[in-house]
Known about the structure:
Blueprint: H1 2-10, H2 13-53, H3 71-77, H4 85-97, H5 101-118, H6 131-135, E1 143-146, H7 149-167, E2 170-177, H8 183-202, E3 211-218, E4 222-224, E5 230-231, H9 235-243, H10 256-267, H11 269-272, E6 277-283, H12 294-304, E7 307-313, E8 321-327, E9 333-339, H13 360-363, H14 372-381, E10 384-389, H15 399-402, H16 412-420, H17 423-435, E11 446-448, H18 452-482, H19 493-525, E12 538-544, H20 551-570, H21 575-585, E13 589-595, H22 614-623
Parallel strand pairs: 1-10, 2-3, 2-6, 6-7, 7-10
Antiparallel strand pairs: 3-4, 3-5, 8-9, 11-12, 12-13
Amino acid sequence: MRTMLAKLQGLRFEEVKAWGMSFIVHVGLLLAFASITHVTIEQTQKLLVKSDIEKQSEEPEFDFQEFKFSSEASDQIGGGGANSLGSGSGALAATMHAGDALPGNVVEREIRNDYFKVDMPTSIPIFQPSNAELTEKVAVAGQTERVSGVKGAMDRLAFEIAGMVKDKPTLVIWAFDASGSLIKQRADISQRMKKVYDQLGLMKVGSEGALKTAAVTFQHQVNVLTPDPIDTDKIDGLLEAINKIPIDLDHTEEMVFTACEQAINKWMAYKTKQRRNIAIIIVTDERGDDMNKLEPLIDITRRFGIKVYCVGHASMFGKQKGVVDWTYPDGYVGPVDVDQGPESFYQELLDLPFWGSQNLALERLSAAQGPYALARLCNESGGIYMITDDSKAEYNFDPAVMRSYQPDYRPVEVIRAEVEKNPAKMALIAAINASSVERIEAPAVAFRADRDEILRTELTEAQKPLAVLDYRLTQMLTALEQGVKYRDAIKEPRWQASYDLALGRALAIRARAFGYNVMLAEMKSSPKTFSDPKKFNQWRLIPSDKVESGPQVKKQVDLSRQYLQRVIDDHPGTPWALIAKHELSQPLGWEWREGTMVIPNQQAMDPNRPMLLLEEEMRMNNMNRPPERVKPKL
């Protein structure tokens, strides 16, 4: 300091004056530039906030003349103290507003540059996804699993429940299908439930009320088995109630999604107030009849993180109707139809029998998937659809091949909108609806012929359904043919295979039906004679490669073979190709073959035996037929 003072004393007055002025000017410029930089930062921040709030499509043109700095914005950026960035900008803002030309021009230029830099494209372009990409099929959180019967399903559920309880206290809601077709499975599950809860107890899962259980049943209405959720140590009372679920054979409705919705509404407080996990476990063998509740239910489960599991059966491949074995009061066990499918939103296969050579394994082919609505609910909520009964799975298909043929699990509205865009898909749905009005049964192919009168009577009875059959086949083909020119616009392999298989099978069955009717008419007008009347008493129609039904039918036969072969060539290793191969392996014509049948209450074929009246003999035969049983509503 002394040295500096000595130097200053040696300077002349003019030198001191110049040095001081230079110092003041440089300090002033530094302060000015610092303030300008801050104003630019603050102004850019204000612009960024504005662009975040307003829609880009309606972004107003920026007016620099009306632009004003706000002390509120300064408070957001700085702390408001003497050392904050906001303290200097407020003073400069006042100067600008007063019309200070030099700072105003500098700031305006900086603001213009920064403003337009905000919307400049980056070096890597970001593309907006198309509508197709937004609605394409994607993997969802849940899954479908084949498990080893009820035991496998319950063991899997025990694992899932234990994981949820370890995370936080949990409420498990069981929803039981009360229909008669599920009697055995409900009993098996109730027995296994006891072991599952005992196992959870040994794992110290659910102690001190961490695991609570509730239950409802559903059919045409919903019933609550547990007015309030129970603790694990009271599970015996619930199991007893499950075993006493009343059976209602008068109603066929399955209100499964309504049951889930009501259960969530009843016990939602356990999620919102107690902050528990909630899981719903559905036990059913059908698809549900209240699918209008599906989308709202998916929304609720996803919003509140409620997982849905289902213990069910595999869906019928491409069909709505499945089959379960029902034991009648007299001990007879027979098949009864239930709604088990399809695995996709739309039924995608014609409901037609195999003529000439029935194949129950193909008619009851498993989809190895749950029905669309239940599988989608489990998938969307992050749960699991567990297939406990897949007795129809006589054929296995490579998962790598079937990956391209998976059901579409997108929302119903999206699926409908896509189908309506393609006339070929609409034609297929119309044809399938025509085939599903009433099941088309395979025709009679064996006719008693020990007397001409009996033969003519049986032939006449066999011809009666053909008029209705021909009408329905005409409906199907008329619909399918309207979509032929739009067939190539179908891009999904699943829809391609379904359309080609439907047209090929409808043409094949109509050709067989026409030839079948011709053969019956000819036999009725001119009955054939047996080569040995003592040995044979029956005429049988068997498939034949001889198609003698005119050029129009032969044209249908050729076209049918083309479509069926196309399915085999384009979709190898799939259920569609398997069905097409079987259909194509069966001849499309018919021929008569002699046969022998046992006729009840008929004496040995002796020309000297006393002749009973025809009406009396047929009455006696009818008396020995098994009684007609009324199929239950399942």
